[in-house]
Design goal:
The complex is a heterotrimer of chains A (264), B (356) and C (282). Chain A is built from eleven helices and no strands. Chain A has 264 residues and is mostly helical. The longest helix of chain A is centred in the first third of the chain and has 34 residues. Chain A has a domain of 175 residues: MetI-like fold (Orthogonal Bundle), CATH 1.10.3720.10. In chain B, the strands form four sheets. A six-stranded mixed beta sheet of chain B has the order 6-7-8-3-9-10, with helices on both faces. In chain B, strands 13-12-11-14-19 form a five-stranded antiparallel beta sheet. In chain B, strands 2-1-4-5 form a four-stranded antiparallel beta sheet, covered by helices on one side. Chain B is elongated and about 80 Å long. In chain C, 74% of the residues lie in helices and 2% in strands. Chain C has twelve helices and two strands. The two termini of chain C are 29 Å apart. The chains are: A mainly alpha (264), B alpha+beta (356), C mainly alpha (282). Chains in contact: A-C, B-C. At the A-C interface, helix 1, helix 3, helix 4, helix 5 and helix 6 of A face helix 1, helix 3, helix 4, helix 5 and helix 7 of C.
Chain lengths: 264, 356, 282
């Protein structure tokens, strides 16, 4: 009995150690966002909301936050829709050479964002297209669509074809089959693809750096702020980003849980 | 050749939290016998096997093999090996490496190991697959490799968890024959779990019927079939006609069974309770008046040709009987025929399902 | 089941357009640029290998390449070694209903902005930062040590992120192994250690390879972490590329360096391609 208890101790200690390592930077970040003095390093002098106040007063930061949100939603939506259509087409229609097509669609996954951003920026140059937030949306769709595609591909099952056949048999048009049968069945996968794309876009730095000039996204704005030195306001911004991400994730998780319970 | 071992299961209970999976299981398996544990899903048969193998710890009770208490022994230290339902052949190893795995764990190396593996493969009828990768084999072949792997280490007891479930009918019948032959050749005690009563009867020296974690009946297949101890056993093993009846005293004070809804009576013992349940197998019913008990006239409602036999559904008033006949016996639907049965072929049970 | 092939193409069209026009075309342009040269203030479009020659001859570039490979390889090795036991414990030693939550907890910290996270590591590892603070105040060392602005800092920050990535892929492949395989090994007399070595480890290798590959690809092209945490003392390949773009405006050279980066990934992919397929149990 006693040896059993000890055998469980070592794995538990290892987990604790690794979790401490994983959570350390975030904990430090959040702690020092409440720093009273000007430097986000020890010693910690008592909690203060000063930097959050400065953050919300910082127009550039707040507009960057909005930009990131909107870009995130739009690019995630586009990436998910396009990825879904392609995944559906490749699994249900099986055109010749679908293996090649699949590889092609997923190819951006192997290329560093730096190169993609650079490529898009010189291409925009060649076409005399200026840098803008729209370009960022384009860039994010390029990198997120393969992921959405891959996620949805993994969720489409052979067995669900019978639902589609039944719907068609009962007289539904292609559009209705997709909207009334396919999409509802795939909704967890679609949601996952959307959320992942949103998160990656929300957090994406290098492509945004290449493709923006005056109006920027939040990560780029934080980066610029960093250039001027360590500042608890950046901690506040980071903590805010974290909290928003967590809230989005948790509410989406709770939402899917409830839907699952209702329909099953 | 290994001589089989005697297995004794004493007072085994198993609880998962509040729910009881096994309730006071007491069984004795003779050395070298083929034991089949039979039961529907949820009966606890798989859990019992897991307890025998050491994968699950019983809440109470002990497992004794050849007089040695192995209750607290881990699977690797127990003299049992298990053939899992999915065979669990290691996909990254060849047939030879799979079968030789147990030997390798025991420190047997080189030529000695190879020889024993070849012998085991010969035994299961797969002499030339040593170097093949297991993923290239068919279902039936994989099953044999799993058997070879389990037997090569000469266990005292071989445990089989629904080994034939994944095979189609013809292959299953063939493997049943081979399993029986294998067990006789090797002599190890086999404990085989299944929900298929035909399989149980084909293979077993002893059948144990489990239901809801309790032993319903245990014994030789013939005894279980002709004289089942409980109503559940009667109905689970093969087909049965179940008829409720009452026991009354007739004018001379003798107990008489009266089948509800039918004008049928016959004598029975003093100890019969007032309410009983009758169980009669379809093949024991006779379409003549030669049986001891006259069951009256019945109308043929349905007729099903099943190849070697035909099955008739008979009705009389509200009651219904299933009867099987050779197909040579010509009968028409809507015909009214006389049915009788020998008293010996009627099994009586109390309303709780126990033998009356 | 013959369905309108046209419909199929129509549905996958947008994805193919995105891939073709918005990805492949810019990549092709990058490759084309790598054969041009920056002369004076403009670009000379006569095809030339000058950029590649410069990369091979100039020690700055060769060094950055070597540095990148060293840092990333170290990261891959450490991340896998740290992640494997972590994934193993969660997959096998934790009750199933807690596994999801534990994984979520491990992933949660990475929902902070990448830039901000790298910056947090800077805070933690800086001379006045948390780690040094703890070390000096507990008396273990007398002077703060430099971890930030060194390769060590970069590796620590990388390992922080990629341990999580590898843990997820390794966890997935561990869970894929049917329980009965391990039970069978134990049943045949293997100790827990031998079960691990003979059965669990080999069958979990695809997960390890996927994790290692992802780590390599993502780390080798990463600019943020080396720049923020590693500082400017030792430059890695992505930093050199950014230098060419921002400070020197030499797009062709940057393009050539990008091609080198891409080639590295392709080579590593070819090496690991065989092992990347997750073997399905029979």
């Amino acid at each position: 009995m006693r040896s059993r208890w000890i055998r469980g101790l070592i794995p538990a200690l290892y987990l604790l150690l690794i979790y401490s390592f994983i959570l350390l930077p975030v904990a430090v970040l959040m702690l020092f966002s409440f720093q009273a003095s000007a430097l986000p390093v020890p010693p910690f002098n008592g909690p203060s909301l000063r930097w959050y106040q400065e953050l919300f007063a910082d127009d550039r930061m707040i507009s960057a936050l909005w930009h990131s949100m909107i870009i995130g939603v739009i690019s995630a939506l586009i990436a998910t829709i396009i990825g879904f259509l392609a995944a559906y087409a490749l699994t249900r229609f099986r055109p010749r050479g679908s293996q090649i097509l699949r590889g092609l669609i997923m190819s951006p996954l192997g290329v560093s964002y730096l190169v993609i951003g650079f490529g898009l920026s010189i291409s925009a140059n060649q076409l005399a297209l200026g840098k803008s937030l729209w370009m960022v949306i384009v860039g994010h769709v390029v990198v997120n669509m393969p992921l959405a595609f891959a996620i949805i591909m993994s969720q489409i099952k052979e067995e669900d074809i019978s639902y589609e056949k039944a719907a068609r048999d009962l007289g539904a048009s292609e559009f209705m089959v997709i909207s009334r049968v396919v999409i509802p069945i795939l909704s967890p996968g679609l949601l996952a693809a959307f959320l992942l794309s949103f998160t990656l876009s929300w957090d994406e730095f290098i492509i945004s750096l290449f493709l923006t000039r005056f109006d920027v996204t939040l990560p780029v704005e934080i980066w610029s702020a960093l250039r001027t030195g360590l500042n608890p306001q950046t901690n506040a911004a980071g903590t805010l980003v974290f909290v928003i991400s967590v809230v989005v994730l948790v509410s989406a998780y709770a939402f899917t849980r409830r839907r699952k319970g209702a329909s099953r | 050749m290994t001589k089989g071992s005697q297995v004794s299961i004493q007072g085994i209970d198993k609880f998962y939290g509040q729910s009881q999976i096994l309730d006071d299981i007491n069984l004795e398996f003779a050395a070298g016998s083929y034991v089949v544990v039979l039961g529907p899903s949820g009966s606890g048969k798989t859990t019992l096997l897991a307890i025998l193998g050491g994968f699950v710890e019983a809440t109470r009770g002990s497992v004794i093999i050849d007089g040695i208490d192995v209750t607290s022994a881990t699977p690797s230290k127990r003299p049992t090996t298990t053939v899992f339902q999915d065979y669990a052949l290691f996909p990254h190893m060849s047939v030879g490496q799979n079968v030789g795995f147990g030997l390798a764990m025991r420190g047997i190396k080189g030529d000695d190991r190879r020889e024993q593996v070849e012998e085991a493969l010969q035994l299961v009828g797969l002499p030339h697959v040593f170097d093949r990768n297991v993923t290239a084999l068919s279902g039936g072949q994989r099953q044999r490799v799993a058997l070879a792997r389990a037997l090569v280490v000469k266990p005292k007891v071989l445990l089989l968890d629904e080994p034939l479930g994944a095979l189609d009918l013809k292959l299953r019948r063939q493997m049943q024959d081979e399993l029986a032959h294998l067990q006789h050749t090797v002599g190890t005690t086999f404990v085989h779990v299944t929900h298929d009563q035909e399989e149980a009867m084909a293979l077993a020296d002893t059948i144990v019927i489990l239901r809801d974690g309790q032993v319903e009946d245990a014994g030789a297949p013939e005894r279980l079939y002709t004289r089942p101890a409980t109503e559940f056993a009667a109905v689970f093993m093969g087909d049965s006609n179940v008829l409720p009846a009452s026991v009354l005293k007739d004018t001379s004070g003798v107990n008489v069974v009266s089948i509800n809804g039918l004008d049928v009576r016959f004598d029975t013992s003093e100890s019969a309770p007032p309410e009983v349940v009758l169980s009669i197998r379809p093949e024991y019913l006779r379409v003549d008046r030669a049986g001891d008990v006259n069951l009256g006239m019945w109308r043929v409602a349905e007729k099903h040709f099943l190849g070697p036999i035909q099955r008739l559904v008979l009705t009389s008033g509200e009651s219904q009987l299933n009867l099987t006949l050779p197909p040579t016996h010509k009968v028409d639907i809507s015909e009214v025929i006389h049915i009788s049965v020998d008293k010996d072929s009627i099994a009586l049970f109390t309303v709780e399902g126990k033998s009356a | 089941m013959k369905r309108s092939a046209l419909q199929g193409w129509a549905l996958s069209g947008p994805a193919l357009i995105v891939t073709g026009v918005l990805f492949l075309a810019p990549m092709a342009l990058v490759i084309v640029y790598s054969f041009w040269q920056r002369v004076g203030g403009s670009i000379d479009q006569t095809p030339t290998l000058a950029n590649y020659q410069k990369i091979l001859s100039d020690p700055t570039f060769a060094n950055s390449l070597v540095n990148s490979l060293q840092v990333v390889t170290l990261t891959v090795i450490i991340s896998v070694l740290v992640a494997y036991p972590f994934a193993y414990v969660i997959a096998y030693k934790v009750p199933p209903k807690w596994q999801g939550i534990l994984l979520l907890l491990a992933v949660l910290p990475f929902w902070t902005s990448y830039v901000v996270r790298s910056y947090s590591w800077l805070l933690v590892l800086a001379k006045q930062g948390v780690v040094n603070n703890a070390l000096t105040s507990s008396g273990l060392i007398s002077d703060p040590i430099s971890i930030a602005n060194t390769r060590t800092g970069t590796v620590i920050a990388f390992v922080h992120f990629f341990t999580m990535v590898c843990a997820l892929t390794i966890y997935a492949s561990l869970r894929q192994i049917p329980d009965t395989y391990r039970k069978a090994a134990r049943d045949l007399g293997a100790s827990p250690f031998r079960t691990f070595v003979a059965v669990t480890l080999p069958l979990s290798l695809p997960g390890v390879v996927v994790g290692a590959f992802l780590t390599f690809v993502l780390a080798i092209g990463d600019f943020i972490t080396p720049q923020i945490v590693g500082g400017g003392n030792e430059l890695l390949l992505p930093q050199v590329i950014m230098l060419q773009i921002n400070r020197r405006g030499d797009f062709p050279l940057a393009a050539a360096l990008s091609v080198v980066l891409l080639l590295l990934v392709v080579i590593v992919y070819l090496i690991s391609a065989k092992k990347l397929v997750l073997r399905r149990p029979t």
